[in-house]
Amino acid sequence: MKALLLAVGLGLITVLQAQDPPASGEDTMAMSGKWYLKAMITDRETSWKKPELVTPMTLTVLEGGSLRAETTLLINGQCKEVELILEKTSEPNKYMAYGGKRVVYIEPTEVKDHYILYCEGEIQGEQARMAKLVGRDPESNEEALENFREFLRAKGFNQEIFSPKQGDTCPPGTDQEPEA
User: Fold this and answer.
1) What's the pLDDT band for 48 if we cut at 50, 70, 90?
2) Backbone φ, ψ for residue 4 (5° rounding)
3) Domain that holds residue 85
């Protein structure tokens, strides 16, 4: 489950860096804010649990250009708060997470405010690949989803795409526990 939480966190955080490097503090602040997970896929279906609900990810730009992402996932009836740091690298659109165990790349789509987050690395002791489609609003966008499908075909994914339910908060009556 930590792998899924990490993957979701990584994917949403890196969305903001898909834009050109900011020229000023104002531009950097424009990268912060809410991002919605629209679709996701992994090549290790059996090693993670799909979230029943995902809240919008809040992204914050840190000193040096790294990013902090915060979100909540509902998995197996329990809400998990997730906070993740993506460490900026010297390569554009490339970030490291979990002590260098995962690499995250950001690909803009042809649709405004939609990005593909592609992650490779170790998850629960296995090598895995994940991809996520994220956007600024919670509404489905068929053009962005088609761009995502084309990206997945090019990367050799053949698993089913999963689109999680969106929510602003964890439902009442669910246990909420922080995820380290």
Assistant:
1) low
2) -65, -45
3) 24-162
